[in-house]
Amino acid sequence: MTVHTETEDGPLVLSPEQVEELGRELDRLRAEIVADLGERDRKYLYSIITTQRGLEIAGRGLMYLGFLPPVWLAAVAALSVSKILDNMEIGHNVMHGQYDWMREPGLNSRVFEWDTVCPADQWKHSHNYIHHTYTNIHNKDRDIGYSVLRMDEGQQWNVLRLGQPLYAFALMMLFEWGVMAHDLEVENILAGKRRWPEVKQLILGQWRKAGKQVLKDYVVFPALTGPLFFHTLAGNVAANLVRNVWAFGIIFCGHFPTGVQTFTEEETADETRGEWYIRQMLGSANITGSKLFHIMSGNLSHQIEHHLFPDLPASRYPAMAPTVRALCEKYGLPYNTGPLGRQIGSVWKKIFKLALPPRMAPKESSPGVIVMRQRKASEVGV
Predict the structure, then answer these.
(1) Is the pTM of this model over 0.90?
(2) CB-CB contact of 170 with 248 (8 Å)
(3) Is residue 122 within 8 Å of residue 183, measured between CB atoms?
(4) Three-state SS across 199-248?
(5) How far apart are CA 229 and CA 217, in angstroms?
(6) Each residue of 62-71: pLDDT tens digit?
């Protein structure tokens, strides 16, 4: 396993012993947080839920005065924040099992459903299982470009990649629909690798969930405002667009800015716990910001900590981040973080750069960190 970091004396080499000691230190950090979970975390989650529901009620109510432009804008703002909180700080985190220890029936990862067109069970398969198990492994993690974009030099270029900036813009505007289609593996359907019996139930689930969402946002709630139907319809469309753009930005900043690494199946075969931890740290990036910014991002602004500990309450990540960063410094590993503007600029620069043929896009610097892996007895002739 190699990563793009240099020391003054050349490549940094981590021994198997160092890798596993780093793993043990992260295990200890995890154990400390697990032992401390309790009422504070419960109150935090319920405070976010109360805020989210209050904003939704306010937004729906303000739409009855939506003929007044300032009130319409206030309604859209309230609904937008409500949807962002529902998807990112509540839905994403609850469905990761971060609050299963509370044993609250409505907040259990197995039954929770969120306010978006993607069925929760399909998202949990493509995200919780596929992405978090095989983070940034080529031909395993389909979140590398979401099967739409070339976001790494290891992905093959073809002439269709020239339209990549347009594809990225479309994905940003329709992000909830892109997430919904992700588990279908459309590229495998087109290639004949998936058959109708495999995808039938997925499509039926999407039809039911998306139908409910479309009916709610674009028919029922607009109809309830009577003559303001089209004002409300436009407001709901706008709120969903705001949520889509925000979610796209936060998620892409956590996975694709300059410095985030990808891996091959050979490099990651038979990983140890420590090697898995290192891959998570190298395959994700953070965004700096205020406490409110972190809440609005579902604390996915701490994507490194999230990938290390996906089933711990995300509200704990800010307190864990200094320890994780200190461990990265101790072992010479990069800790990819920066303000939103810099990270999102880096993402879009990569989108445009990797749309070009390889001969027109300069490659990143050569790897500068070598992670020595444990070798099996059969590999050394013992």
Answers:
(1) yes
(2) no
(3) yes
(4) HHHHHHHHHHHHHHHHHHHHHHHHHHCHHHHHHHHHHHHHHHHHHHHHHH
(5) 11
(6) 999 999 999 9
